[in-house]
Amino acid sequence: MTKKKNEFSPDQFVVYPAHGVGKIVSVETQEVAGFELEMFVIAFEKDKMTLRVPTHKASDVGMRALATPDVVNHALKTLRGKAKVKKAMWSRRAQEYEQKINSGDLIAIAEVVRDLHRQDDQREQSYSERQLYEAALERLTREFAAVAGDDENAAAAQIGSVLVGRAA
Questions:
Q1: Do 16 and 63 meet the contact criterion of CB atoms below 8 Å apart?
Q2: pTM (2 decimals)?
Q3: What are 21's strand-pairing partners?
Q4: Distance CA 132, CA 98 (A)
Q5: Quick check: 150 and 143 in contact, CB under 8 A?
Q6: Residue 46 has what pLDDT?
Q7: DSSP assignment, residue 2?
Q8: What is the rounded CA–CA span in Å between residue 147 and residue 142?
Q9: pLDDT of 53 over the 90 cut
Q10: If both were cysteines, with which of 1, 13, 78, 151 could 110 make a disulfide (CB 3.0 to 4.6 Å apart)?
């Protein structure tokens, strides 16, 4: 068996689709069912969570490096766009939003933020709408901050100004 070089390394920020931005703290070997398995140990500071992902499965589960500045700019462009809300039942839309958030795709997450963002003069959000919006906004903010090397407040301010400044 040839061992392929890992595309990820310790101290690198990565995006895990279901959890967002985490930092690889180490690569360790564990014995699982009699087999030696090399694992990435990923810390999600904000969630006080540690995840172990087999190194050979990292790409298969959708783990990826942080977005490039080009992708971040594309996400910002998406945020500036007009909200596209389908006429489907809320439960169906909520499911689609949830899938987009958990896809780990920054553009899809930006679409959710764009579509669920409410200006002050717009109708009230339902509890589930707000939950999805906040989850998407948090993922977007964390990745923007990690890419820019900024803190999350700066990233949140950038996203907020784009959302407020866009055409209602």
A1: yes
A2: 0.86
A3: 15
A4: 7
A5: no
A6: 81
A7: P
A8: 9
A9: yes
A10: 78
